[in-house]
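Changelog-adjacent note: as of this version, every example in the card shows the full chain rather than a window. The one below runs 166 residues end to end.
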Amino acid sequence: MGVNAQARVRHVPARTGRSFAVLGQGVTLLDEPADNGDALMLFEVRTPSGGMVPPHTEDNHEAFYVIEGIFELEVEGELFRCGAGDFLSIQPGTVHSFRNAGPGWARMLTLTSPGSQHQRFFESLGEPLEPGADPPPLTGPPDFERVDRLGRESGIHFLPPPAAGG
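Full-length structure tokens:
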């Protein structure tokens, strides 16, 4: 049983997985593509109050399960207010964004399939984060050109930000 059982099981104790600070949020990888033939990537997102990911589409499937707090997910112009236990799944090419609409930290599990595109994006854009640590707060808006370029290289297509003043 030993070797085969270990190769077929992945255990990640709470807040110990490989982590990154991405767009002011903490991302902890739980099931990585290298461990499952790129079938998926499962990760936990910890988002401070007001933290968000801007509108974008992806070349992969994505699903969200809220663990704690309140997330507002806008999907193709429709707003879904999701609390603990709520689930939302989207197909490739669907415009979506999310933000933490609550007063404190919020957490959700996110599953992407295949998973290597998101992993590449997090590793390219994010900064390594000590497991269990909070991400540093953003000190200004992210560099959209960089986020957009790294996103495109990873199958994630961000919509341009609204023009200033309108």
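Structural remarks: Residues 116-125 form the longest helix (10 residues).
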